[in-house]
């Protein structure tokens, strides 16, 4: 064992039973608080690992060990890390406590003889996560967060927990990372690993599922489906596009959607039948003004599926994603007054008409009025909870 760690050993008699040894370890430091937290993270990690098909035994072990470096006074953490030849990033000097995740890894290896890389890696990034995080990394990371008993109302932790339980681990993780990101001006440090992990999760196209449909990225293989829909006048009637006359137009549209997603300007899902993977419509957000937490929605559906509650089912799902994961506060929709079908869909989902925008745009040789609809996050939450 590295000499620098000897002083932290006290006179603990290790039994080889990790849970008992952890209890003895924190007892020697009279640190009931960290022990309590550790045990709740351990049972949560075991549960989440089982849910997602990760090894529950390893997850529990990683959780039992994740905060063992809490026994090291914060003022000594950077020093100890140096003595253990742990690589310290420049940013970590600004907030020494952040190295506790790396210290816990070293202590797990040196004091508790853990050699399993999956466990050690998960401990090492339990506070910040990192890019290319493994399932085990995410399991420990999110279990640590959703086990916290923080005073007051922390809706984002409840939201993250819902996502985890709904089998949407990445979305749950992203809710937490977004919360940190939003509060970055108040924090001493936002760790580069966390920034990378968040960027990576944000750039993966999010697949969503409703009862009848899978919402996924539209690929060039779907050009024919898109063409079929957009070539119909009844679909494009209220659209600012002419009906398509050739498949290249569909390919170009798909290309545009991809580019806008990559540039984080918009997101467009293909509404896909679970049975045969056919794209029967699309929906998504555009006009995304991140600083104002708002975006507009757009959608269309091939007529064969009209009047079957498809758009209501799909919009409810993407609203939830918009409010929770994209952190939208206001979602707008612009509809021509006579587009009764679309207005009915919006109203069913909870949108409220706010007024008439006269001559809002010029299209097909005439000025077109729009009714502006909006749905605000707190009203949506009231409806769905
Ligand atoms: Fe921690
Ligand atoms: Fe923790």
From TrEMBL:
InterPro entries: Acyl_CoA_acyltransferase, GNAT_dom, HD/PDEase_dom, HD_domain, N-acetyltransferase, YqeK. Signal peptide: none annotated. Its EC number is 3.6.1.41. Transmembrane segments: none annotated. It is an enzyme of class 3 (hydrolase). Keywords: Hydrolase, Iron, Metal-binding, Nucleotide-binding. CDD domains: HDc. The keyword Glycoprotein does not apply. Residues 230-369 form the N-acetyltransferase domain. This is bis(5'-nucleosyl)-tetraphosphatase (symmetrical). It comes from Paenibacillus amylolyticus.
């Amino acid at each position: 064992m590295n000499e620098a760690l000897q002083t932290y050993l006290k006179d603990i008699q290790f039994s080889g039973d990790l849970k008992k040894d952890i209890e003895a370890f924190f007892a020697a430091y009279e640190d009931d608080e960290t022990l309590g937290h550790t045990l709740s993270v351990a049972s949560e990690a075991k549960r989440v690992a089982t849910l997602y098909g990760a090894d529950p035994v390893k997850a529990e072990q990683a959780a039992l060990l994740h905060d063992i470096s809490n026994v090291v006074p914060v003022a000594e953490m950077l020093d100890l890390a140096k003595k253990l030849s742990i690589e310290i990033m420049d940013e970590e000097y600004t907030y020494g406590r952040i190295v506790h995740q790396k210290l816990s890894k070293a202590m797990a290896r040196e004091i508790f003889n853990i050699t399993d890389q999956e466990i050690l890696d998960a401990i090492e990034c339990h506070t910040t996560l990192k890019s290319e995080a493994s399932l085990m990394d995410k399991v420990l990371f999110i279990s640590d967060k959703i086990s916290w008993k923080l005073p007051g109302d922390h809706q984002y932790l409840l939201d993250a927990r819902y996502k985890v339980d709904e089998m949407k681990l990445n979305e749950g993780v992203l809710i937490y990372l977004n919360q940190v990101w939003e509060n970055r001006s108040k924090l001493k440090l936002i760790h580069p690993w966390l920034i990378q992990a968040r960027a990576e999760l944000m750039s993966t196209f999010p697949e969503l599922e409703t009862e009848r449909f899978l919402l996924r990225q539209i690929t060039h293989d779907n050009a024919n489906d898109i063409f079929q829909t957009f070539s119909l006048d009844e679909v494009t009637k209220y659209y600012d596009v002419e009906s398509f006359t050739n498949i290249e137009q569909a390919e170009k549209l798909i290309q545009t959607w991809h580019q806008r997603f990559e540039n984080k300007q918009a997101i467009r899902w293909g509404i896909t039948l679970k049975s045969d993977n056919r794209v029967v419509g699309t929906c998504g957000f555009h006009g995304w003004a991140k600083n104002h937490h708002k975006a507009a929605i757009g959608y269309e559906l091939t007529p064969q599926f009209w009047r079957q509650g498809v758009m209501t089912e799909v919009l409810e799902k993407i609203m939830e994603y918009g409010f929770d994961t994209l952190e939208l506060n206001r979602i707008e929709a612009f509809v021509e007054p006579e587009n009764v079908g679309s207005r009915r869909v919006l109203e069913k989902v909870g949108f409220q008409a706010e007024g008439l925008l006269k001559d809002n745009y010029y299209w097909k040789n005439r000025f077109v009025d729009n009714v502006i609809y909006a749905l605000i996050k707190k009203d949506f939450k009231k409806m769905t909870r």
